[in-house]
Amino acid sequence: MKAVDIRDRICDIVSAIRPLDDIERQHVNFVLSWIQSDVEIFRIEKPATPPIHLVSYFLVFSPEQSKVLLVDHKKAELWLPPGGHVELNEDPKDTVVREAIEELGITAEFIFEKPLFVTVTKTVGNVIQHTDVSLWYALKWNPEDPLIYDKDEFHQIRWFEIDEVPFERSDPHLRRFIKKIKENYV
Fold first, then answer.
1. 140 lies in a domain?
2. Residue 71 backbone phi and psi in degrees, to 5
3. Is residue 1 part of a domain?
4. pLDDT-based confidence at 1, cuts 50/70/90?
5. Contact between residue 85 and residue 55 where contact means Cβ atoms under 8 Å apart
6. Closest by CA position to 9, among listed 82, 98, 114
7. pLDDT score of 3
8. pLDDT attached to residue 96
9. Rounded to the nearest 5°, which phi and psi values hold at 155?
10. What is the CATH classification number for the domain harbouring 172?
11. Residue 97 is assigned to a structural domain of this protein
């Protein structure tokens, strides 16, 4: 996709997100201004160039069993949703499709076609600190079906009951995303 077209598409995607709270409203406003500023929004060099760049997260749900899949991420040292950096001029949804195959060995089965949440977060762990602008998607998967996860990136993967997610060792916005899902979509 051409650079101008993808920026417009991402602006449309972010504009369509209904903020859960004031934090997300601030993040939406920041992201729209950031995209429209013409700075580079895609990571072009690992690990942190530019210092703010676009990421697609996808939280894998088992709606029937009220479970979510998290990965024990080696570099971040956190339990996170799977996901990855959006490549140059890549549609963020295509990032989810690519990363679902690379990280879990699955075909992405979207609950919703567009992201439901957007966050702006400084990274932690064993990486050069930078800021991830994350679009959060929701996928569904049956916990009984096999997953082949990327052992180079993750110590392990695990299904958690929604009410037993280790929030103290996860993305600072994960609790709010799960709340948004529970209040509006589950």
1. yes
2. -115, 140
3. no
4. low
5. yes
6. 114
7. 67
8. 99
9. -70, -40
10. 3.90.79.10
11. yes
